[in-house]
Amino acid sequence: MRYVDPTMNALPQGRAFMIRSLPTQGRGLTRSLTSARVRGCLLVVSGHRHALAIGQIADIGGNVDTFDDTLGFRHDPVSCEFNAFTLRRLRIGINLIPHGRSYDGHFLETNPLNVTDSTLCPIEPIAEPPWEAIAAIPIVDEGGALHPVSLAAPMLRTLPLYHALGVPGAVPECWAREAVYRRLLKVAQSLPDGLGLVVLDAWRPYVVQRHLYDTLLGMVEARYADLDEADLRAMTRAFVSPPSDRPECPSPHLTGGAVDVALCDADGMLLEMGSAFDEARPASHTVYFEHHAHDAATRTYRDRRRVLYHAMVDAGFANLPSEWWHYSYGDQMWAWYRGESRALFGPSGPDSLEARWRRSLGQDA
Known about the structure:
Strand content: 15-25%
Structural class: alpha+beta
Number of strands: 14
Low-confidence stretches: 1-24, 26-115
Shape: globular
Oligomer: single chain
Order of helices and strands: EEEEEEEHEEHEHEHHEHEEHH
Largest sheet: 5 strands, mixed
Radius of gyration: 23 Å
């Protein structure tokens, strides 16, 4: 589907096109359109493939009127004029249809303006994860093997960075659940020409999670000796989850649902994103350069993060706001950000030779 930037100052008159509100991770985030000028068009607001409201636009201007999909506009067309509106729904689309053209009840799949540049779409603020609430989300894991992401080459590139850096216990492969594997392929296929997706880490053994957490916590304690234990652990958790292989609340990377990704150019060179993978500093927060893009270099970092974020979220992933590289599908963090009632993946691991032998001998795996 092709989109028009919703912050455009002037929208062509007498054309059929669609504006999509910025993709977000839900949780009450809003999007406003306050600067466009459109006359003589029919407004169709669509969410999750069904119309929420239809109305005649006289002018979209300075004042913001709340346009809420909970107010009974879901199915019945309305005849009114809107000054402006705020959208409060995950991934809403807006179709503007020239006056006199009928609306057939379907979400428009074409955009004559042919605008696809996701660098024009800011990343909305992402709520900090409430870890206690996330850990309480039930997990209904129906099983499913982990798949080696390296088999997706050349569409996907892999660089198991922890193994390359000599982290104890790190594996030389990026393993992921099938649903994650296929969504990563979708992301890679959706990127602009000249850009590629690199998977730096996916499933992670417990021993690696323990090493990363303990090492960073020790460094944080040495650097901020005046902070109390709770603050030190909160600072550490922003970049490394506490190690857990408990079935009811595993560390995200132990599920095979969390991945760390980056962008590369056509030659496979990793692109600078404003901070390095796993750097524990403010610039690693996903939206950092939405507020600190003051020159050509920082605007480039901002735009690259936008490209990665929108491609991943459109494929169904959720982002950890403190890490521009970390995305999840199917784990408890994903369930919270996407508004799901349950997580899909519990602790997992690659199949072992011993497990195969036990199964072949009729023993429990």
